[in-house]
Amino acid sequence: MFGSIFKLSTKLNKQSIVMTLSRGIVQQRDSMEKYFKDKRFIVTGASSGIGKVIAGRLLGLDAYVYAIGRDVETLPSSDNKKLIKVTVDVSEWDTVYCQVLEMGPVHGLVNNAGVAHIESFLSTTQHGWDDTLNINSRGMVRVSQAVAQNMIDAKIKGSIVNVSSTISERGIPDHVTYCASKGAVNQITRTMAIELGPLGIRTNNVNPTVVMTQMGKKAWSDPAKSGPILKKIPLGRFAEPNEIADAVIFLLSDYSQMVNGLNLYVDGGYMTG
């Protein structure tokens, strides 16, 4: 009899331990989607490609979205009243700062605006250099300054996501200005992470390889050009816009609360080689 009681007691103790451990392991928390409801986000370069997809995804998560682009006609079209279209050139130092500051505090910023001038090193033009650096790097700084100031004033612990590239670290022919601009983005992001982190603002990069936007498909349709890069990607393909958006949404959300100053490669393994 005593043996049976001992066995029962041992069994109950084991069950109690398992239940206690389970409660410690399985912690309840809200879904990532719930985080975005009614929060406010800015997406630059929202007129096409990755930016338009990110803006659409945020609207789908029931967030307010300020979609920034140079041409209002090409910005996302939607009856959703949470979409606010903003026409401004991010390379205009004073104008973009004032317009973004006037938008008021937001919970997140996606610096996606970018251009690429395909020029060899020896034929690089002043226009190609200035336009690329002004939009891809300087514009990103200016927009971020206004957003960060608004976050600080409103005591918002927000997230800034900068769209960089794997060729910020790996050079390819005919992209000297683009490589330089994205290398600058990486260093700007690290500096922002160090300075803004203590204020509760996280800054991270998403670094794709080639992305199959309409422009990407056109630019990389020649197998002679795309083949050498595809051979270096273990997954054997280029990224789709939604896959970049997935990474951006993660970094904007509270599921990445301890992620700061990161280069998140969405490259199928390209940077491992």
TrEMBL record:
**Its domain of life?**
Eukaryota
Q: Does the keyword Ribonucleoprotein apply?
A: no
Q: Name one Pfam family in it.
A: adh_short_C2
Query: Is NADP among this UniProt entry's keywords?
Result: yes
Example of a GO biological process term: glucose metabolic process
UniProt entry keywords in alphabetical sequence: NADP, Oxidoreductase
Q: Name one GO molecular function term.
A: L-xylulose reductase (NADPH) activity
Q: Which SUPFAM superfamilies match?
A: NAD(P)-binding Rossmann-fold domains
Report the PROSITE patterns cross-referenced here.
ADH_SHORT
What do we know about how this protein assembles, alone or with others?
Answer: Homotetramer.
As for family, the record states: Belongs to the short-chain dehydrogenases/reductases (SDR) family.
Name listed for the protein in its UniProt record = D-erythrulose reductase
